[in-house]
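S.,

Sequence below, as promised.
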Amino acid sequence: MSLLRTLVGLVLCLLVPFAYANPYQPYPIPAPRIQQVSPADLLKQGVEQLTNYLGSGGVQNRPQLEAFLEKSISPFFDFEYMARWAAGAQARYMTPQQGVALEKKLRRLFMAGMVEKLAQYRHGRVVFLRPVGNPQTGELVLRILAYQQGRPQPQRLSFRMYRSPRGWKVYDVSSNGQSALAYYRTQFAIEARQQRYPYYFIK
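The prediction came back faster than expected:
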């Protein structure tokens, strides 16, 4: 779990609103609708919201940190899609109940990784790079350089987003080219081979 915690923690200590070569097949994209806040603006607002919270000392209280992340950060991620992609080919055979069980498992791992790394967070700065893609197509990659105190080299983070019926959602994050979603898929596949029952039954 050390790689997962490092990857997810470094990503999410600066994020609010999240491989293999082009593995994604997001849900069908509905017709474009008017939206006041662009994906780039959403990311900037999220970064400010989280860094302000951390700077106020919220990181000192684990229960409050967990509550803040669950309420303010998790809604920006599409855990349902993330879980289905992480399940790989098994996803087509999953019942709705099994899908919910796997989504809860992935969400729990994801949030635990955030809490673990944010407890060690030291305030830094963020440089926003030019987005890749076109919002009109329904998919966009937002990139940032994340600097932390005591670390001269920035972390390169990429946030893959798509326009869902519920607005723009993050469905994967890459840190220096390493995809968190691809990591989950690999780990879940290993668990599936080691167990008698498919991993998505595990609570």
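DSSP finds six helices and six strands in the chain.

Coffee later?
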